[in-house]
Every structure is written in C-alpha cells, then in structure tokens.
Model the fold of this input.
Amino acid sequence: MANLFGTVVLSITALFFLSTTWSSFSNPKQFGERLGFAIPGADGLNEIRSQYGGFFLAAAVCGAMALVGIIPHSTAYIVNGTIFGGLIAGRLASLFPDGGIKKYGPLIRMLFVIDALGFILAMVAFILDRSH
Done:
C-alpha cells in the first residue's frame, strides 16, 4: 500500500513540476504575470525560466528517477517535502504582512492549497516508506 501511495504521489508531483516547467519555459511573460509579476525585459524572462522552469525541471527529474528506480523514493519525498514545505512556509509567513488571504488572487489562493497538500502528501509518503 505504501509503495502504491508513494508512486501515485511521485507521479502527480512530477507531472505538476513538469507542467510548471513547461509553462514557465514556453511563455515566461504570461507565467510571471499570472503570479502578479511585471516582466519588463530579458532579465525577468531569464529569472522566470531559471527559477521556475529550471528548478521545477530538476524536481521532476528527481521524481522520475525515483519512479524508475535510479534513486530511492525516499530521496524524492525529501525533495518534494523541501520544495512544498518551503513554499507553504513562505506563503504562511506572508499572510499577516500582506493583509490576509483575501488580498490574494485565485491562483495564489490555489497555490496555498497545492503547496500544503504537496507537503503533507510528501511527508506521509516518506513516513509510510520508512515504516517498511
């Protein structure tokens, strides 16, 4: 059961990471604007591609490597937990100074849910993996 659960978690997160990679590489200006960034030139486009495209590509590769048995699943769970944990920690730390969740648009509100869920699922998969 734990192995199937972990495989599903890694598959879903790898697809999410690949989707983020594709969106940020293929249209970095639109990607940034959807997140609330104004991208005036090549510097900003490069940052979107590197910070979102490159970073999430590396995470997707890590998940894929775990799925095909090149690295342990637990390694990919730690990577996912670190990514999603850091993202949700930053989002939660921003709530008070930004004036609360109502100040954010629908995409950022959805990312609160995605990041929290990604963190929880990665940690549950890690714990189940370690118990076997």
User: Anything to note?
Assistant: The chain has one domain: 2-130.
